[in-house]
Structures are given as structure tokens and as C-alpha cells.
Amino acid sequence: MSATAIRFDGVTLGYGRRPAVHHLNGEIAASSLTAVVGPNGAGKSTLLKGIVGTLRPLEGHIRLIGASNVPVAYLPQAAEIDRSFPLSVYDLVAMGLWSRSGLFGGVGRKDRTKIEEALAAVGLIGFERRPISTLSGGQMQRALFARLLLQDSPVILLDEPFTAIDARTTADLLDLVRRWHAESRTVVAVLHDLDMVKRAFPKTLLIAREPVAWGETQDVLSAENLLKARRMVEAYDPHAHECHRSAA
Amino acid sequence: MLNLILSPFAEFEFMQRALVGVVAIALGGGPIGVFLMLRRMSLTGDAMAHAILPGAAVGYLFAGLSLSAMTIGGLVAGVVVAVAAGLVSRFTTLKEDASLAAFYLLSLALGVTIVSLRGSNVDLLHVLFGTVLALDDNTLLLIAAISTITALALALLYRPLVLECVDPTFLRSVSRAGTPTHLIFLGLVVLNLVGGFHALGTLLAVGMMMLPAAASRFWTNDITVMMVISVVIGIASGLSGLLLSFHAELPAGPAIILAAGGIYTVSLLLGREGGLLWLAWPGKHLEA
User: How far apart (Å, rounded) are the C-alpha atoms in residues A45 and A30?
Assistant: First the structure.
């Protein structure tokens, strides 16, 4: 069977002492293409932050397996970028080379070719010198996908990559996701469009704070499971007690 | 005309020294100001300039108007406040501006009180508004050294500094350089404020950072060009301010900041990137 890329052992992630992801066990297989779905507030983004390592688990461990010096490539929800900063599209995309050039390394001719290829792959040729403030939402997302391409990471995490993106851009970017899958990279994407998940994502994790179902997409997205996920209580209990469930 | 510009500097050594001083301050302060502005920390610079005052005042209390005592005092106070405020905003929910706003008033009141304990009103004016026309060799060397350190440090930190402004989440996902970069940057701000403090005083030192930076934003959309323009505007302000003060017999420090303010106003009106004139008369729209 295929190797494991990301392993969760009794993982609880949250803010303060409030869990947003509660007691998650399981693994994401290497080279798999997984969708993470669930209602708002279900802990989907939190889960990605935990995998990237910007949020430490309150309990349990998240392990990235397969020794690699290249860090996980992560596309957060778009709002976190300062669009008013005077930076060109070219420079934004070139940041993807960070893991190789680091703080001080130069950008050589080979790297420039790579940057141009990435821009071409997302259809942004001619946009190189444009300030990022002039990009539309879809063009910005294309630029960020170009940056992901350059990061050349074996593990790619996408947080709602197609929200508020038009059909053509979505189709183009989804092709890149398929290409990554074909290149045996491990891709995990938070999504809301269940039709797209059924069409393009073989594996699905349905989560509503606690994992509801995880496995083959057609099994996970059953009417019964979706109803269960929808029943998740969104508000937290102000008088919640300490959780004593065992971590494993 | 040319004579009006050249002769003050040719004839008077104190004018030459003042010019060298403001050029050096512009070289360090210009790029720092641009980063402060782009990181939405313009007022942070102002608050930190005030935070330097009690430290410099304590130095003054012990050693009078001594360069080293006031520099060390100012640096210590500035670094303490900058690091404390930086850490507070990073690791608690309190925002940086909120944690610095309190220091602004507290430091100014404390500093003025300490200077008044020993000195005259003239000394107080020196501390608040600087002595750009009386820069000695050591002060010039200090300012030049600070500019050199700033240029080197910015060259090394450029990439994480830019990334931290544009996309801090991305920087955190690829590197741990974010927090150290931020702290070193705050240290550079303090250094430049202490350098500027000797020439322009605590109240006006930040003017040579923020006014050229704010003006340069109206001329370009490219951050490297912006830093160059900011330095050029700083130097032009220093030169014209000194001349203005010489010919019109105005106090030199405020004249320099007024000149910078004049350039800022012109940029605000005429600047090619979002100046008011271009907003009012943008010309007919282009073809799609």
C-alpha cells in the first residue's frame, strides 16, 4: 500500500483551551488527493494550520512523514495578503523560491526560467510588472498558484482555493491540482463545492470539529454523514468541562 | 542664485557640518521611513522618538550635554520600549499602536521633567529640537556610522522584511525569520532616531523619516525606487531647510522639517501615483 504522508495521533487543535479540531486520528496517504469538507466553524482551516505548524496541537501529534527539506506549501484564505504593498506580480511569484534561495540567496537564470514557466502555467504572461494592487481576485489566486508551483513541495495544502473565483479560473487552477496529483504530490484542499469534490477528489475528510467520516469520497459524502455534520453545535458551551478522553 | 546656494556652505564650517549630518540622516532614515510607512507603523516611529527622551534625559542628568551619555541613555530607553511593545503586540491581543500610545505621553512628560531638574530652558530646547548647527566630529561620526549600519542591515534583511509586510502567513510557513526580523527592524528604528535626535531633537527626528517616505509614496509603485526617492527627498529637504534657515534667519531644525513638509505637500498635490491633481483630472479613460 501507499506510504503515509501526514499522520494524526489523537490531535486536538484549538484556541485558548477551546478545541476547534477534537481528537483526530488517522493518516493522509502519500500522493493522495484529499478534500476536507464540513460546515463553517468545523475546524477545517485550523486543521491546515496545524499541519503547517503555525498552530501547535493542544494535545496529540501531527507527523509529516518522508524526510524532506522543502517545507509544506500552504495557500491560506486570500484575505491575509496586504494588497496595497508596492510589489510586482513577478516578485510575489518569485517568493515561491524561498526554500531554495532563503534569506540571501540569489535568483539565477535557471530560477528566472522557472518563474516564467510558472507564470505561463497559470496564464499570467504579461502581468509580470503589474503591481499586485491592480490584480482582480481571480488573477491574484492565479499568481498565488504560480508561487505554489515554484515552492515545488511534496505536500500542498489549499484553504478554500476556489472561493469567489469564476468558472474558467477554477477550471484552470483545478487542472494544476490534478497535475500535482499526477506528479505524486500529496494535496489537501479545504472545499465547499461538493460536486467538485465528487468529480475531482478521490478522498474526503468530513469534519465537524470531530471527524465525521474519512475515506473514499463517494462513501464519505453520504446523505447520512452530511446530516450528521450539519448537526454540529456551532456555539461553544461556556461551561464546558475539561476533556478526559484518552489521547489515543 | 548659485551663489546664494553655495556661499553659505563655502564660507561657514558649521553649515558644512550641518549638511553632512542631514545627508547622513537622510541616507539611513529614508529607507527606514519607507518600511515604517508600508508596515503601517508611521505613528510607531513617532511614539518611539518620544520614548527615547527619558533615556537621553537621564544621561543628561548625570553628564550634561554629553554625546555618549545621551546616546547610550536614548538607545537603552528606545530599545527597551521597542522590544517590550513589539513583544506585547506579537504575543498578546493588544495592538502595537495601543501599547505605544501610552509611552508617547508618559515619556515626553517624564523626559521634560528630568531635564528641567537640572538644566535651563535652553538645554531643554536642545533636547527637544536638536542642535543641527552645532554638530561636532564625534556626533557626525555617530550619525554616519548609524547610516552605514542601517544600509547594511536593510540589505541583509530586505527579503524577510518585505515578505513580512506583504504576506506574513507565507513567511511563517516557510521560515522562522519573522520575529527576529521584526525585532532587528525595531532596533534600526531606534538607532536612526537616536542619530536624528542629536541633530533635530526628539520631537523632530522622526520627521526626517516619515515626511520623505510619505512623499515618495506619491511618485512610484516600486519599493526600491521608493526608498531611493525617499533618500533624495530627505537630502533635498536638508539642503533647502539649511539654506532657508541661513537666509531667513529661522531655527535650522524646524526649517528642515518645514522644507520636507513642503516637498510632501507638493507630492500630495502633483505625485504621479495618486496625487490629488491626477485624481481630479485623470484624463479620458483608455480603451479596454
Answer: 20
